Amino acid sequence: MMSFTYKATPKWMAYVELQTRARRDYTVIDYYETKGGIGYNITKNNQAFVGLGRYGTYEKMKISQEEFRLWLQYTFTQRFGRLKLDHRGRAEHRFFYASQTGEHTEANRFRYRLSGTLPINKDKVQEETFFVNAFEELFFGSREPNFKRNRTFAGFGYQFNHTLSATTGYMFQREFSTKGNDNFHFLYFSLNFTIDGTDDEKDIVIPMVD
Questions:
Q1: What are phi and psi of 148, to 5 degrees?
Q2: In terms of Cα–Cα distance, which of 131, 133, 111 is closest to 121?
Q3: Nearest Cα to 168, choosing from 186, 190, 152?
Q4: Res 26: pLDDT
Q5: DSSP of 161-175
């Protein structure tokens, strides 16, 4: 994953993310995401975000499904000493196109994620900071089965300076369906770039796999 955050003012920010995955075989890339959006800090601990993205899934080196997604998101932040917790709720509307059959479908999905970031050698994430992070995320939908997916992630990283951080870790993902469950195991690596021209003294936000 590669992410880009532009902080225009203490209130407004823009975000872009590029991601690829090897879902079935670690040596074959069979999924990609390109997405982004605009965020607004309502207060110090409350942020609203609107986003959109395009997603592609491949089978046998040919694209099998394309998706366009719109979402609204709200994040509430809590702090307990060095530990920062983020409660994130998201409502998505998804448009699917099955490339091999020509079928168009739509679906809604709702997500809740509890994530935590803990700096190791400093009081907050800033230049030259080691950190650990983790999250648990639940996915729900209006169609059976209503509980769609859960994800668990644990990782660590390093904030080199105000512009660049790197994160690596492991994510377990379980997909639920009426035909049976499917499990995925991901090794994760990201480079995160931040452009901040403000004088805001808040700690740097570390994007997590999404």
A1: -90, -40
A2: 131
A3: 190
A4: 77
A5: SSSEEEEEEEEEEEE
Query: Mean pLDDT across the stretch 26-39?
Result: 91
User: What type of residue is 80?
Assistant: F
Output the pTM of the full model: 0.92
- For β-strands 31-43 and 12-21, DSSP reports them as antiparallel
- How many other β-carbons are positioned within 10 Å of the β-carbon of residue 121? 9
Rounded CA separation 22/102 (Å)? 25
CA 206, distance to chain mean position in Å, is 10
Neighbours of 171 (CB within 10 A): 19
Residues in CB range of 20: below 8 A, 6 or more apart: 29, 31, 32, 33
Residues in the chain: 210
Q: How much is the pLDDT for 68?
A: 97
What mean pLDDT do residues 148-153 have? 95
Q: Which pLDDT tens digit goes with each residue over 87-124? A: 999 999 999 999 878 899 999 999 999 999 999 999 99
Listing DSSP states for 113-169 in one string gives EEEEEEESSSSSS-TTEEEEEEEEEEEEESSSSSEEEEEEEEEEEEE-SSSEEEEEE
107: amino acid identity, one letter: A
